[in-house]
Design brief:
Shape of chain A: globular
Order of helices and strands of chain B: HEEHEHEHEHE
CATH superfamily of chain A: Histidine kinase-like ATPase, C-terminal domain
Radius of gyration of chain A: 14 Å
Helix content of chain B: 25-40%
CATH topology of chain A: Heat Shock Protein 90
Largest sheet of chain A: 5 strands, antiparallel
Number of helices of chain B: 5
Strand order of the largest sheet of chain B: 1-5-4-3-2-6
Number of strands of chain A: 5
Number of strands of chain B: 6
Oligomer: heterodimer
CATH superfamily of chain B: HprK N-terminal domain-like
CATH class of chain B: Alpha Beta
Strand content of chain A: 25-35%
Shape of chain B: globular
Largest interface: A-B, 24 and 19 residues
Distance between the termini of chain B: 18 Å
Order of helices and strands of chain A: EHHEEHHHEE
Helix content of chain A: 25-40%
């Protein structure tokens, strides 16, 4: 039986960035998933959640956990990514000064998400928003 | 290295997790950049940072880091302590710089991640 979770994310709200990832981590621990798998999953989700807070106006995180995998879908409304290939390059960043002051924005997020997920799909409409789908198998 | 030894060597204050100061840490990582911390795949780590905000605690939570030493006399907020307690973390504060703290702990045998 699948577990479904939904979280709202507010752009710019750094004090709550990571709340959703934290909740997902707790659920995965309760489901007795391998701790190493949990770490990869929550690091990828946290990076993606921080991206929504840093770059979008608002977003929704939908997480589905079934017996063999976790699927995380982040849909945001905001600036979008004009060049996804460029954004995937390590060190490339469009983060603001505020985001950098929070300890992020070094252009490591998307490459780190790729390293920590089994499947990653990013689609974006510049000026509209971005959808990130991440899947990890247990 | 025992957390109590980290406290002694850096003249640190234990903000929370006093009961865990007998625990051992094997490696240290000094960074103000949480993006770098999130790329580590290391267990039993002491995070040494001058970045004192909620995201430092969140980052440690995601990366399974239990011990954080804040340098440069940065003070931990109540919100950070609350979050750290929820996640069974030990928070320490020292007035030493990040460089001095790292140098002392490295010299005393705390290993680098790389």
């Amino acid at each position: 039986m699948a577990v479904e979770l939904t979280y709202q994310v507010k752009g710019g709200d750094f004090s709550h960035a990571g709340d959703a990832s934290s909740q997902v981590k707790k659920v995965l621990k309760q489901l007795d998933i391998d701790p190493k798998k949990i770490k990869s999953i929550v690091i990828a989700l946290y990076e993606a959640e921080v991206n929504v807070v840093a770059h979008a106006l608002e977003g929704v995180i939908r997480v589905t956990v079934d017996e063999e995998k976790i699927t995380m879908l982040l849909t945001d409304r905001g600036a979008g990514i004009p060049d996804i290939e460029l954004a995937m390059r390590e060190g490339y960043s469009t983060a603001s000064k505020e985001v950098r002051e929070m300890g992020f924005g070094a252009g490591m997020g998307l490459p780190n998400i790729k390293r920590n997920t089994d499947l990653l799909e990013i689609t974006s409409e510049p000026g509209q928003g971005t959808t990130v789908k991440m899947v990890n198998f247990f | 290295m025992k957390i109590s030894e980290v406290v002694r060597l850096t003249g640190a204050t234990v903000v929370c997790g006093e009961e865990k100061t007998g625990h051992e840490v094997e490696k240290g990582f000094s960074s103000d950049l949480m993006s770098d911390v999130l790329t580590l795949d290391t267990e039993n780590l002491l995070l040494i940072t001058g970045l004192s905000n909620v995201q430092a605690i969140r980052t440690a939570e995601m990366a399974d880091i239990q011990y954080i030493l804040f340098t440069r006399n940065k003070k931990v907020s109540d919100e950070m302590v609350e979050l750290a307690k929820e996640n069974n973390m030990v928070l320490l504060e020292t007035s030493f710089s990040l460089f001095k703290t790292s140098g002392i702990l490295y010299h005393a045998g705390l290993k680098p991640v790389y």
